[in-house]
Amino acid sequence: MIHSLVAGALLAVSTLVPTPAQTQAVADDTPVGRNGQLHVCGTKLCNERNEPVQLRGMSTHGLQWYANCVKTASLDALANDWKADILRISMYVQEDGYETDPEKFTNLVNTYIEEATKRGLYALVDWHQLDPGDPNENLGLAKTFFTEIAERHKDKKNIIYDIANEPNGVSWAGIKSYAEQMVPVIRAKDPDGVIFVGTHGWASLGVSDGGSEADVIDDPVNATNLMYTFHFYAASHQQEYFDALSRAADRIPLFVTEFGTQTYTGDGGNDFTWSQKYLDFLESKQIGWTNWNFSDDFRSGAVFKEGTCSGEDFTGTTMLKPAGVWIRDHIRNRTASTVTTDVSTSAELKAALTAAKPGDTIKLADGTYTGNFKTTIDGTSSAPITLTGSPNAVLQAGGGYGLHLDGASYWNVKGITVTGGQKGIMIDGATHVTIDGVTVHGLDMEGVHFRNSSTYGVIKNSRIYDTGDDGRGMGEGVYVGSAGGTSDKSDHVQILGNTIGPDVGGEAVDLKEGTTGGLVSGNSFDGRGLTGANYDDSWIDVKGNNYVIENNTGKNTTNNGYETHTQQSGWGCGTVFRGNTSDLTGATGSGRYAFNITNYSASSCKVTIDRSNTMTGGKALTNPGIPVT
After folding, report:
1. Measured on CA atoms in the order 472, 478, 482, 486, is the torsion positive or negative?
2. Given 95, 115, 166, 476, which residue is catalytic?
3. Quick one: DSSP state of residue 77?
4. What 3-state class would DSSP assign to 473?
5. Alpha carbon distance, N-terminus to C-terminus of the chain
6. Fewest CB within 10 angstroms: 92, 264, 457, 603, which?
7. To 10 degrees, what angle do helices 172-187 and 139-153 make?
């Protein structure tokens, strides 16, 4: 967010010699080796295993001024001593930058991409437009530059394209129009690369020019695999800017491509308190960042002391300014300090859910916690957040959701009881949530609901009963996905070793169209309480694809044990049923099959009924015409 002024004579020396494009081969123990090709999944930046990742690294200063700070020794230190993930290559368009010699600056960027690639770092190519602030004024230059960069590096896994650094003096509609012209240019050469675009008001989500994050949320760029950028300088941009970032974080994909611990000039005193507040939030949301800047400029925001870049010593902290020491520490130290928070009141629980950090544990004392409890904080794959207590720690809701994990990934919920709400536990747009050993009962509607593309969720060793008390047949024990469409991709959910029923006012498990690849195994179902309302006449209804239903036991149903349906074309197929034990004694419906397969087609909608399934008390193992293999 600063105009970068020349601090003396132009520094033109670089010890890096331009190299031809390399075929990418990186060590396994590097950021690129561990994560591979990145992509946008939901609001997160994810690796090739579809796991959210938070990249941390540094931005160069303007290449026209401080190219001598980006050389072999400094890049080795950034990769090996600082343990950075990403290098932002900041190429100014004006201010003696690209427009003065496109070939020279393109070659320089190519060189830095190759150097980042050698070290297994992600290379963020920054089209550093600043003045003029409307990126459309440089549209032709941008198309030429990014065509050349994408063509040369299209086979690499580590390239990220930032097509507009800090748009200013231009509406969001103008930026969106620019982005929708630029994205196809890059996609024509590199269909897989992630693209960043700056937001209005100097990448402030509009705050600096009187707009807001709603401008972007309500009118996003018509493109996929794209993220929006946010910049802050902690001594200048505080509550108003932080609030905008907080509101946007669960709505759109974000990356902080530039920030400083000082004022927006990149100079002045460091505000490490606000800097820490920002970085804690970014970690909780797994939003990546690059700090400004990796140079020995005289300002306090440059990490190296003046004169450092004329030498070869970049390791350790001796040559760092205070901001450099602080930033290096925050790049290196990946494991957040974790705490166990003991809570005994509703107010304490709500506060703990708001303040949790990756790796933390919230421990509930026995007692009743009245209210609706919600968190939007993410754990991480290596440091999930845990909410734990005994069955005597009871969340008592008067309506709504008892516990709402709203975009909060990597949580473990253990042992507690949830009762009294509309729904018990709602997992909304979250990945890798594990519910273990909980008790859920006394609800108007569903017990546990995985919704809004909540992937890789697990519920195990839990007890669910007395749901659907409003009598509408919407009291499923576990509900995966959403009805009425296929946009909810709550895939790979596992339902393991639970006891579901009696008095569940819907199916024990309902697997909706649009979801795929889940596992339902080792559960016990008791269908006492099924009423036939809303077609609830079985323990499990499968409308998603490619589920495995195995080794479950069921008793007390009004009609059938397990059913498949096609609610949306192409869905309800690929299920494998094996090792299930069905007791249909007392069933009074017209079917009375252990497996009622309503949509079987050997060619287009295959369902497998294995001979290991057994049935007592009903009409037949499966309805007529369905093979048992």
Report:
1. negative
2. 166
3. I
4. coil
5. 66
6. 603
7. 30
199's tokens = 């937001």
In the block, residue with structure tokens 């969340």: 395
Are 490 and 510 a contacting pair, CB within 8 Å?
Answer: no
CA separation for the pair 500, 556 (Å, rounded): 12
CATH label, 368-622, candidates 2.160.20.10, 3.40.190.10, 1.10.10.10, 3.40.630.30: 2.160.20.10
CA distance 626 to 545: 18
- What is the architecture, at CATH level 2, of domain 38-332? Alpha-Beta Barrel (3.20)
Residue 404 dihedral angles phi and psi, to the nearest 5°: -120, 110
Q: Which tokens belong to 578?
A: 């094996």
Cα–Cα distances (Å) from 330 to 88, 116, 279, in that order, read 17, 20, 9
The residues, ordered by sequence, that sit 6+ positions from 156 with a Cβ below 8 Å of its Cβ are 24, 113, 117, 123
User: Is 321 in contact with 303 (CB distance < 8 Å)?
Assistant: yes
Q: Is 283 a catalytic residue?
A: no
Q: What are phi and psi of 105, to 5 degrees?
A: -75, -35
Q: pLDDT, tens digit, for every residue of 222-281?
A: 999 999 999 999 999 999 999 999 999 989 999 999 999 999 999 999 999 999 999 989
- Phi and psi at 213, nearest 5°, equal -60, -25
Distance CA 575, CA 367 (A): 42
pLDDT of residue 532 exceeding 90, the answer is: no
- Nearest alpha carbon to residue 500 among 479, 523, 521, 522: 523
Q: What is the mean pLDDT of residues 158-172?
A: 97
Please state, as a whole number, how many other Cβ atoms lie within 10 Å of the Cβ of residue 600.
18
Rounded to 5 degrees, φ, ψ at 429 are: 60, 35
pLDDT band at 462 (very low <50, low <70, confident <90, very high): very high
pLDDT given at position 5: 36
In this predicted structure, what is the pLDDT of residue 527? 93
Q: What are phi and psi of 33, to 5 degrees?
A: -65, -35
The strand pair at 340-343 and 576-578 is best described as unpaired
Domain-by-domain residue ranges, the chain?
Answer: 38-332, 368-622
Residues 335-356 have pLDDT tens digits of 545 678 999 999 999 999 999 9
Q: Whole-angstrom Cα distance, residue 441 to residue 420? A: 7
- Mean pLDDT score, 493-500: 97
Tell me the β-bridge partners of 577: 549, 609
151 counts as catalytic:
no
Here the tokens at position 228 are: 């929006």
For residue 184, how many other CB atoms are within 10 A of its CB?
Answer: 10
Q: What whole-number distance in Å separates Cα of residue 137 and Cα of residue 178?
A: 10
> 29 vs 539, which has greater pLDDT?
539
Instruction: Read off the pTM.
Output: 0.57
Query: Given this model, what pLDDT does residue 22 score?
Result: 53
Query: How high is the pLDDT of residue 14?
Result: 39
Residue 133 has pLDDT above 70, yes or no: yes
E-assigned strands of 303-400?
340-343, 361-364, 367-370, 373-375, 385-388, 393-396
> How many Cβ atoms are within 10 Å of 583's Cβ, its own excluded?
20
258, 446, 507, 513: the active-site residue:
258
Reported as a pLDDT band with limits 50, 70 and 90, residue 295 is very high
